[in-house]
Amino acid sequence: MKALVKKYPKKGIWLENVPEPECGDSEIKVKITHTAICGTDLHIFNWDSWAQRTLNVPLIIGHEFCGIIKEVGKNVRRYHEGQRVSGEGHIACGYCRNCRAGKQHFCASSKGIGVHTNGAFAEYLVIPESNIWPISDNTSSEIAAFFDPFGNAVHSISSYKIVGEDILITGAGPIGLISVAVCKFMGARNIVITDINDYRLILAQKLGATKTINTKKESVIDCFSELNIKHGFDVGLEMSGHPQAFNEMLSCIYHGGKIVLLGLLPKSTSINWDNIIFKGLNVKGVYGREMYETWYKMDQLINSGLDLNEIITHKFPISNFNEAFDVISTGQCGKIVMEW
Question: What is the mean pLDDT of the chain?
Answer without folding.
Answer: 96
